Amino acid sequence: MPTIDLAVTPLRELNRTLHAIPAGSNDISFEVLNPRGSHSVAVGIDAPVSVEVRGSVGYYCGGMNSEATITVHGSAGPGVAENMMSGTVFVKGDASQYAGATGRGGLLVIEGNASSRCGISMKGMDIVVRGNVGHMSAFMAQSGNLVVLGDAGDALGDSLYEARLFVRGSVKSLGADCIAKEMRPEHLDILRGLLDRAGITHVSPKEFTRYGSARTLYNFNIDNAEAY
Amino acid sequence: MCGIVGLFLKDKNLEPHLGALLSDMLIIMSDRGPDSAGIAIYGAPTDGVDKLTLQSADPRADFNGLEDILAAASGETAKVMVKSTHAVLTFASEYLSAIRSALAEARPNIRIMGSGESVEIYKEVGLPKDVVARFDIAAMSGSHGIGHTRMATESAVTTLGAHPFSTGADQCLVHNGSLSNHNNLRRDLKRGGMTFETENDTEVAAAYLTAKLAEGRNLGEALNGAVDDLDGFFTFVVGTKSGFGVVRDAIACKPAVMAETDQYVAFGSEYRALVNLPGIDTARVWEPEPATVYFWEH
Prior knowledge:
Chain A is mainly beta and 228 residues long. Chain A has one domain: Glutamate synthase, alpha subunit, C-terminal domain (Pectate Lyase C-like).
């Protein structure tokens, strides 16, 4: 397993190494030591490698990830797995604001809490948070699934499009046009699959409430013309 | 952006290292703002002794002979310690207003950066590493302190526009963000008797807290008032003689990380700022909640 110690190796050298993996390579595992809150650790990987980051990271760790499995053995700063395309990012600790923002695919698993704007504008990725999420999570989320085992903060799913939100605990408040919806068998199946992929076996999909878009903001309502 | 840091020591054994720890934290935050930097250090107060931190654009002229000028006004108690563009005056507390008057008359270009029994405030245009070296902050001891490196948005890049802002005795504040109702608030505060040195939004936040504390509110109540009355983006770290507080606006887009151990409570705009603190690997590390006041007092 190649080990890269960020106490001695510049961050750009790490990312250049991760970007230079030839197509078709697999089963390559990297270990990153002493991240000490560095920004942009392991961003832009486009290969099925695994990266174990031993410590806490700063902004944008795992951003734009394709195919790689990245595990942060610590907490992550703002924008972890931002715009992820595919692959998996695990955060063993907490994640700061806008975790998984605009993500198009792949799975982000946060073992601790995520703060505000988790999954903002997500476009197809899946996010599983074992703890709580902060305010404005899944704001304008377009597709994909956000699963929260704990509680959600204010304005969950504000201006939501077609992403599915599953919350096991309480929701402090719902955002504009976000409503609780019936949990049908296909949703239980989707949720069971996501929990399995996140390695969560101790909770049942039946413990969750599904939230989604009421779809009243999709088209302009002429009765609201006075408000403009 | 801007980078802010704060350190509140619980363990007295760390007090000789406060300046060095805080300097290191601030230097790590340099790439969040290169325009100006400042640090406030709260040292051990001496009964009956007050301090003024002075600043001059022409220190050679302004600080020359200061002790002689202030001898009469201070009942021969004033001592002057010059550090680059700043000078710290110490004197018997009862002469504070006489000294302020004598300074205003004899040295009208001198600005007062901070006053009180405990705080010393050093701030200048430039990078944190240069500013902390210029004032030898690393050699300073104290019980708590806050620091700031600025990316200017709301007012000019000047020494007076640098943080921390101090608008009351032993009070100061650093800010990451920008306020949108500072002009209205400044007018209200002026009507209530506050005076302002700059057009800066952060100075208004500092004056707001000073006004609340002057009404008899405690730091927690004053900070809760700020959440309701200030419009805009803010993460504030505030120092008082005995305490240290943190508050973020309800949107909380300006970053903040805190760490607590048996030895200290620390604040950084990013986790990077905290990585060299002793015992950080086993500290409780968390992101302060939006619109929630945190404060600690000795």
